Task: structure prediction
Amino acid sequence: MLVQIYGDNAMKETGVYKWVKRFSEGRGSVTDEERSGRPVTSRTEENIAKVRQVLRENRRLTVRSIAEQVNIDRETVRKILTEDLDMRKVCAKMVPKELTEEQKQRRATVSQDLLERQDDILGRVITGDETWVYQYDPETKRQSAQWKTANSPRPKNFRQSTSRVKIM
Result:
C-alpha cells in the first residue's frame, strides 16, 4: 500500500517492520538516540584558546605546525581555525610600493621634468658591454599567506626594489 501511495519514495518493507517493532516496544520518538562512542575531546575551549594564542604570535603558521605546537590532531586544528575562530588563510596582496603623499607628488614632478627634457637625456646615453644583474630573493605569494578573520584587513606585501650588482 505504501508503494502505491509514495512510489519510489516509500520505505522498504524491512524498514517498516523494524520501526513497527521499535514502537511496539515502547519507543515514542523517531529521532536518533545517544550512541556510545568516542567523545570529542580535542575541540575544547582550552585548545581553542591555545590555537588563538599561537596565531597571535605568528599568523603565517601552517595547520601542521600549529598542531605540533598545541599537540592535537591536524584536522581538529583545521576545524578550530575555520569553524570556531572563523578564520581562513589568505595570501598577501601585492602592491607596487608604499609611498607617502609627499613621495607620490615628488615622483610626479620628476616624471614630468624627465618628459620635458627627454631629447637632452637621450642624446647623452652611452652604451657599453657591462651586464647588470638583479640580485634579490622575493617572498612568494604562498609564503606570504597568513590566517585572518572575516573582518580583518587583507595583508599587503610591497614589491621589493631590486639591488643591482655590476658584473664585468
User: Anything to note?
Assistant: DSSP finds seven helices and six strands in the chain. Helices lie at 2-6, 13-24, 45-57, 63-70, 74-84, 101-116, 118-122.
